[in-house]
Design goal:
Strand order of the largest sheet of chain A: 1-7-6-5-4-2-3
Strand order of the largest sheet of chain B: 2-10-9-8-7-3-4
Structural class of chain A: alpha/beta
Largest interface: A-B, 199 and 207 residues
Structural class of chain B: alpha/beta
Shape of chain A: globular
Helix content of chain A: 25-40%
CATH class of the largest domain in chain A: Alpha Beta
Number of strands of chain B: 17
CATH topology of the largest domain in chain B: Aspartate Aminotransferase, domain 2
Order of helices and strands of chain B: HHEHHHEHEHEEEHEHEEEEEHHEEHEEEH
CATH superfamily of the largest domain in chain B: Type I PLP-dependent aspartate aminotransferase-like (Major domain)
CATH topology of the largest domain in chain A: Aspartate Aminotransferase, domain 2
Radius of gyration of chain A: 25 Å
Strand content of chain B: 5-15%
Number of helices of chain A: 14
Oligomer: heterodimer
CATH class of the largest domain in chain B: Alpha Beta
Largest sheet of chain B: 7 strands, mixed
Strand content of chain A: 5-15%
Distance between the termini of chain B: 56 Å
Order of helices and strands of chain A: HHHHEHEHEHEHEEEEEHEHHEEHHH
Number of domains of chain B: 2
Distance between the termini of chain A: 26 Å
């Protein structure tokens, strides 16, 4: 397909601007500081609409079909929340207009913080982080500031081998040495290894619970105790909160810090890779270190508090990804306590139902009740020379978005499947049928899988050339690469 | 109440039977009883869609928005006209309900849009490469500082104090995490002080960070700073917070910047009480491997057709874990899509015209204000669409009075800069009509009197 730049026809215009209605003045900017030309395409409005509509047709979203991308919680994104976030009284409010003219925004932020604290069992929240990974960074910086204030020097962060890549990356960015913890035969943290590695110089244990195998950490109370006994803090990667909404809370499990991914658990759309939102909740002892400003109020008046001497500072301009926060607020407000619990129950029921159907045809390395997702191995199919990649690509031909693949790293040929609560039984049945059919095909006609997909807008891309000779931008024909 | 779960009680029963469990509670037996919640969460009761909409509309009406007020406030978040096609196209749910394009074959739409976005950013900034976007301008600038330190293996970051105050705070926060030292240099007539720059940059300096136009709206002499910065082996990081200025001003790439970090909200994105906005990051080709964030590249499929993939992922956290260039995972794909559509629609002629409208409206506004008794010019250097004036009374008080006239005034500078009593940062974009501006002038005449 052509690029927008390749549709350019000299003289075409795609937008209209008002005429200058004030007397024209000299700009007063020296010529050396001005540019002569902005090399943008020239296309009509219809050209733009057709081009991006065509691009949208070459994209698969939750509204297009089943999207069981493990660890990403690709649930239905309620349309009413989009309508709400687009209200001019929310989308068109300036972050620096007076507090008096921003009471509605501040009320939403204040109430959302309180709701998230109740849902997670934490005492205080910052809504500033723009994504889960930025939330991790904030959480670890808060921990670092806390230990500094106490005059303690701790240099290590413990991270299980099943963790998301962002966990060790965030710890490293924060200047910590990352110490990996092995998983035991049941998919949880290896307790004897934890006892050895939980030393006095450990600042934080970062744990995803339920973990990336979709399994609840059965020893969580004991794990928290071991870490706390050595003076360390417990960090919960809340990426998988969808499994336990209204059922259990990180704060009650001994976690001191937790981040949430509002674009996962709280239904805000993923936007093709963002914007997200990664609020961070902490126990009271860590509250002084949260980013500034905090949003405070008494239910009548709301205000921004910048007077926070122990704060780690800021990680983002203004107050967070407000429009995403609004969608999460609306979701919580609409569902209420019973609705949220129903989310977790159905997410877990759907995952277990699907897991039982696929066990047998595919290897299930950890065979126990799962939470919101489960991880299969394509090892049986590998015997026929078929890789998990091929299974994933073949699913595209059946009309599905493939699951997360090759993650977590501790499962060979991993397929991580998260159906979410917003799918019906018949969708799960049809997906299971497709997966069983593919297992058959892997046995009888492996080339069919290796050549998949055949029904998508393109077949498999040449990723090697893309990396070896990167072409990362369009250039005008007369523009020589420097 | 609103429900998004699908299955009926009967279906749930069938599924439980198939799993071999008696009740839903059996699914949570692996959680210690001591930590299972005993009662419902203490949250307000559920709502129907109608009740929800009514309640949120009510809350939204407690805010003032750009439709009800004339607004002369910029300072890092700008009111610009957004063509209708932008929300219509970004509202295509194939785009906004998708995630990171891990499966390239069914994600060509987002992938190609990101490739086009990268190209647009390169064209605007005249840099060689750009990534798929960052969280916002402030964190993009902080990541650029870290990137410069990784490239030069130096630890000192020199920051001009004419950079947006909140951006400087974010740079400090990231610098603290990475163990970098931040040094601020002052300004002279509203622009980065040339003498302080010359004294401040040394062989220890990884990068000099400069915003253009700067927080006061003033056009910095970027090309002249370049020689000083490179003379000491440091990198020049240009920060663009108001990218519509790039239709008029010499580009950072044209001035020899090594890295450009910026905020793309002005390009088709709503102001949204501060977010989500759109960070962007561009650099010289030589620094490609040190860039954080996602990159999309063009390649071909097995049938030789043009297609797009995420590439050079060996820099990123999901592959490199603790050795990654950054912990950044997601980008702001939907905001980048909005900017891409906005730039395509405005095009070559429209974008230049837009820049010119902004500059002209701001000049008219400034000239009219300076006609008023007691309002004085503060800086003499050239500006784009923002400028500072000194008010005869506390600008916070002026703002309060203007609110009664349906006007949102500028930013009182006192909150961000010492020694700026009466300083008021005003902005005018293409959105402000002559009528709006004249109305502000009349209101100010009344207040000053």
């Amino acid at each position: 397909m052509k690029l927008i730049f390749e549709l350019s026809v000299q003289g075409r215009e795609g937008a209209s601007l008002p005429k200058l209605d004030v007397p024209e003045r000299e700009l007063g900017i020296p010529a050396a500081q001005l540019r002569s030309d902005v090399p943008l395409p020239e296309v009509s409005e219809v050209d733009v609409v057709r081009h991006y509509t065509e691009l949208s047709r070459r994209n698969f979203g939750v509204d297009s079909g089943f999207y069981p991308l493990g660890s990403c919680t690709m649930k239905y994104n309620p349309k009413v929340n989009e309508a709400i976030a687009s209200l001019p009284g929310l989308s068109s409010v300036h972050p620096y207009q007076s507090e008096g003219l921003s009471q509605g925004c501040l009320q939403i932020l204040h109430e959302l913080s309180a709701d998230l604290a109740e849902i997670t069992g934490m005492d205080a929240f910052t809504l500033q982080p723009a994504a889960g990974a930025q939330g991790e960074l904030v959480g670890l910086m808060v921990a670092k500031a806390y230990f500094r204030k106490r005059g303690e020097r701790r240099t290590k962060v413990l991270v299980p081998d099943s963790a998301h890549g962002t966990n060790p990356a965030s710890a490293a960015v924060c200047g910590y040495e990352v110490v990996e913890l092995s998983s035991d035969s049941r998919g949880g943290v290896d307790m004897s290894e934890l006892s050895d590695k939980a030393t006095g110089d450990v600042a934080v244990l970062m744990l995803t619970n339920p973990n990336t195998l979709g399994l609840f950490e059965e020893n969580i109370i004991e794990i928290s105790k071991i870490v706390h006994d050595k003076g360390g803090l417990m960090y919960c990667d809340g990426a998988n909160m969808n499994a336990i909404l209204g059922v259990a809370r990180p704060g009650d499990m001994g976690f001191d810090i937790t981040h949430l991914n509002l674009h996962k658990t709280f239904s805000a759309p993923h936007g093709g890779g963002g914007p997200g939102s990664g609020p961070v909740g902490v126990k009271a002892l860590l509250e002084p270190f949260l980013p500034k400003p905090t949003i405070e109020g008494d239910g009548e008046r709301y205000f921004l508090n910048y007077d926070r001497p122990d704060s780690i500072g800021r990680v983002k301009a203004f107050y967070g990804n407000f429009a995403v926060l609004v969608k999460a607020y609306a979701y919580i407000r609409a569902l209420g306590p019973d609705g949220l619990r129903e989310v977790a129950e159905n997410a877990v029921l759907n995952a277990n139902y699907l897991m039982r159907k696929l066990k047998g045809a595919y290897e299930l390395p950890y065979d126990r009740i799962c939470k919101h997702e489960f991880v299969l191995s394509g090892s049986k199919q590998l015997a026929h020379g078929v890789h998990t990649m091929d299974i994933a690509k073949r699913l595209i031909d059946y009309g599905y978005h493939p699951p997360t693949i090759y993650f977590p790293l501790i499962v060979k040929e991993a397929l991580m499947i998260e159906p979410t609560e917003t799918e019906g039984k018949e969708t799960l049945d049809a997906f299971a049928d497709a997966m069983l059919q593919i297992a058959e095909e892997a046995r009888k006609d492996p080339d069919l899988l290796r050549a998949a997909p055949q029904t998508a807008p393109v077949t498999r891309p040449d990723a090697l050339t893309a990396a070896r000779r990167p072409n990362l931008r369009w250039r005008p024909v007369d523009d020589k690469p420097q | 109440m609103v429900r998004y779960v699908v299955n009926t009680d009967k279906e749930r029963r069938e599924m439980m039977d198939s799993i071999g469990i008696e009740s839903i509670g059996d699914l949570f037996r692996d959680i210690d009883e001591g930590i299972l919640l005993r009662g419902p969460l203490r949250l307000r009761h559920s709502l129907s869609e109608q009740e929800l909409m009514d309640e949120l509309r009510g809350i939204s009406e407690k805010n003032a928005d750009a439709n009800g007020y004339a607004r002369f406030l910029g300072a890092g978040a700008y009111d610009h006209f957004i063509p209708s096609i932008v929300p219509h196209l970004t509202g295509r749910s194939e785009f906004y309900t998708s995630y990171t394009p891990y499966q390239a074959e069914i994600s060509q739409g987002i992938l190609q849009a990101i490739y086009e976005f990268q190209s647009f950013i390169c064209q605007l900034t005249e840099m060689e490469v750009a990534n798929a976007s960052m969280y916002d301008g402030a964190s993009a600038l902080a990541e650029a500082a870290v990137m410069a330190s990784n490239i030069t293996r130096r630890k000192e970051i020199v920051v001009s104090s004419t950079i947006h105050p909140e951006y400087r705070e974010v740079v400090r926060t990231y610098a603290e995490a990475h163990g970098l030292e931040v040094k601020e240099i002052g300004f002279d007539d509203g622009a980065t002080s040339a003498s302080e720059l010359a004294k401040g940059v040394s062989e220890r300096t990884a990068a000099v960070l400069v915003q253009n136009p700067n927080f006061f709206g003033i056009v910095e002499e970027l090309c002249e700073m370049e020689q000083v910065v490179h003379g000491r082996g440091a990198l020049l990081v240009a920060c663009v917070v108001e990218p519509t200025s790039l239709g008029l001003l010499k580009s950072p790439g044209g001035c020899g910047a090594d890295i450009v970090a910026g905020e793309g909200q002005s390009l088709g994105n709503s102001i949204n009480f501060g977010g989500p906005h759109l960070g962007f990051l561009a650099a010289r080709q030589a620094f490609l491997q040190k860039m954080p964030g996602r990159l999309v590249g063009m390649t071909s499929d097995t049938k030789g057709r043009r297609c797009f993939v995420m590439t050079l992922q060996a820099r990123e956290q999901h592959v490199r874990r603790e050795k990654a260039t950054s912990n950044v995972c997601t980008n702001q794909a939907l905001n980048a899509l909005a900017a891409t559509i906005f730039l395509a629609a405005l095009g070559k002629g429209g974008f230049t015209k837009l820049s010119n409208l902004n500059a002209q409206k701001a000049r008219y506004l400034r000239a009219r204000i300076l006609e008023l008794d007691g309002f004085e010019s503060v800086f003499t250097k050239p500006f784009y669409n923002e400028f500072v004036v000194k008010c005869p009374v506390d600008p916070a008080r002026i703002n309060k009075e203007l609110e009664g006239d349906g006007i949102i005034g500028g930013l009182p500078l006192r909150r961000h800069y010492d020694g700026f009593e009466g300083g008021w940062l005003l902005c005018a974009t293409e959105r402000e009509t002559k009528l709006d501006i004249d109305r502000l002038i009349e209101a100010l005449r009344g207040i000053a009197r």
